[in-house]
Amino acid sequence: MSLWVDKYRPRSLDDCHYHPELSSRLKSLAASGDFPHILFYGPSGAGKKTRIMATLRELYGPGVEKLRIDQRVFVTPSNRKLDVNVVQSNFHIELTPSDVGMYDRVVIQDILKEIAQTQQVDLNAKQKFKVVIINEADSLTRDAQAALRRTMEKYMTNMRLIMCANSTSKIIAPIRSRCLLVRVSAPSDEEMATVLTHVAKKERFHLPATASESIIEASDGNLRKALLVFEAMKMQRPDLEGDIDVARPDWETYCAKVADMILQEQSASRLLEVRAKIYELLSHCIPAHVVLKTIADRIVDKVDDELKASVVHYAAHYELRMRQGSKKIFHIEAFVAKIMSVVKQYALMGMTEDWE
Amino acid sequence: MATFGRLQTAPTPQDPRLQPWVEKYRPKTIDEVSSQDNTVAVLRKSLASTNLPHMLFYGPPGTGKTSTILALARQLFGPDLFRSRVLELNASDERGIKVVREKIKTFARETPRNAGVSSDGKTYPCPPYKLIILDEADSMTQDAQSALRRIMETYSRITRFCLVCNYVTRIIEPLASRCSKFRFRPLAQGSSQARIQMIADSEGVQADPGVLDLILQLANGDLRKAITYLQTAQRLHTAGDSPTPISVMSIHEISGVVPTNVVDGLLRSLGVEPGGGINTALATGFDGVRAEVRRVGREGWSAGQVLEQLHDALLPLATIPTIPKANAAIAIAECDKALCEGGDEELQLLECCLRIKEALGKA
């Protein structure tokens, strides 16, 4: 039995519940035979990937859902071997080049050239071109993006690119100007409610309005999260009646605990305790920037208004440092220490430090 | 490595209907190149005398650098010799030091073969040298660039180089000094308008009034961007059963510009009346700003674009005193840098907004 997220994922553009104008636009593009390179962007859980797969189905028919997973080996100029997992069907190939870190340019060059230089073999295929899907396009290195530029123009006959990103800020301008930008915004609260009711109806039970509201509030526009939470809730309390609290992931509660610890006491020994907790979080593979952001969010909610701006300032500051540096824990700790000092200073003297 | 090397002319004849207009309307001769009069004049002279220096083309994207050199090469060598006399390398090819040493050097030292009679009956100047085009040369490594230095001199009798790049500062000085530099300016409004109008007419584009002007304004001197916008909009509007004229709204959507009501909402939460001046009565507390920033993120707008439009909306306001305005500009600049370096969008935007708010609050 598959999860509800997968079970009720729309297979075709017509089945998508929200953004009907987007669906109709994608549909007419797929039908026109003049399909451009596309860059899908939007927050996570908004349905980018679902729409990409539905568009592919629109382009090639159901054959595109016969997937196989390959492990490909690429060799860098310095003879290092890279293993990349590639998902492909007869008509498309999907890869996440950022998995290989700084060597993504090699993967992009090799794969695109290979696809671009082989024509569609299947005579029954609806389209003459193949599609390459690049996930997490915003974490591609500059080099890899530069490598895409001319390739995208040169091999337009045999290949189309579909890229999937959270934001266009990190995509270089030459790529943006070569793509059709498609924004997939997060569903509104009403739209999420419709989807939840739809799933409840398919599963043959009634979803009380209060439960639906609390799910929507907890998921913050992320439909994937909403459906996962919904399913978990249903497992715990089959009737969904009464006052139920949404099961938050444990790392979130853990982060909240850390934030509370910081606010309760500001001392060197407390810093050590916090450090142990943060190590615990990191060793459970929670991304460091998520940890920092969640802690900062929680602190902002709890401190006085005068302090909020400085907390955000330091969170932004250390988050950036973390991306530039390589040892994440240092920067989280620095952030925690700084926040402690700011809070303590405010409590003792009733003033905020001027961070300008 | 068959994949790499001589310029591959389109392997299969492409349905002209499906061709990107950027390729379709690439200038065929250098006289067709829009609004780069100085460069074209110099090149025309060198075409007549068939003597070419090493060249370095630089300028912002979409100003016709690649088009010019390709057109020039075509006019010099004609379609037959084009493949054997021109080597085009761009960032999508491997261009490390190894390639410079092997590929480029091998190609550079081959003596060009004699020109036969061209198949299309025209005569081409066909000078006795080959041309190596290094497109996007600013993404070549320092080492690879240094390796080129001596090659350029040794084989200058039989090979000419043309380096194409966006940022001339990323080309090492010894290379730059060996080339004659041509700067490509952003296209003047008039000439890009003529070009867009020509393409729109020959493709039979139906557009609402003001659409072409809007495209040019959004493209900001980048002709490729303008043509891509036009073609994408045309695709969208003719794809369905009943073609409709291109509307202003869809151009906005394609270009990824944030609608004014989103930016205005953000401005209001910062205590600025859009188009007016500071109005602290509008300012909301921390939570108001945070809610607006969250909304921007949820709707999927890119923080970089929001920042740019915030900047454009804030700076022309005459009623904001100089110092707060300057502080706001500093906040925007620092946020932009942080975003470029990979900072988290929501956090950075929120921080920037808070700083702007504080700066304006002191006015």
What report would you give on this structure?
- The complex is a heterodimer of chains A (356) and B (363).
- The model of chain A has no long low-confidence stretch (mean pLDDT 85).
- With 356 residues, chain A is an alpha/beta fold.
- Chain A is 53% helix and 11% strand.
- Chain A has three domains: 180 residues, Rossmann fold; 48 residues; 106 residues, Zinc Finger, Delta Prime, domain 3 (Up-down Bundle), CATH 1.20.272.
- In chain A, helix 11 packs antiparallel against helix 14 and helix 12 packs antiparallel against helix 13.
- A seven-stranded mixed beta sheet of chain A has the order 2-3-4-5-6-1-7, with helices on both faces.
- By secondary structure, chain B is an alpha/beta fold.
- Chain B folds into three domains: 179 residues, P-loop containing nucleotide triphosphate hydrolases (Rossmann fold, 3-Layer(aba) Sandwich); 67 residues, Helicase, Ruva Protein, domain 3 (Orthogonal Bundle), CATH 1.10.8.60; 102 residues, Zinc Finger, Delta Prime, domain 3 (Up-down Bundle).
- In chain B, strands 2-3-4-1-5 form a five-stranded parallel beta sheet.
- In chain B, helix 5 links the parallel strand 3 and strand 4.
- In chain B, helix 9 crosses helix 10, helix 12 packs antiparallel against helix 15 and helix 14 packs antiparallel against helix 15.
- Chain B starts with 20 loop residues before the first helix and ends with a helix.
- The N terminus of chain B is likely disordered.
- Classes of the chains: A alpha/beta (356), B alpha/beta (363).
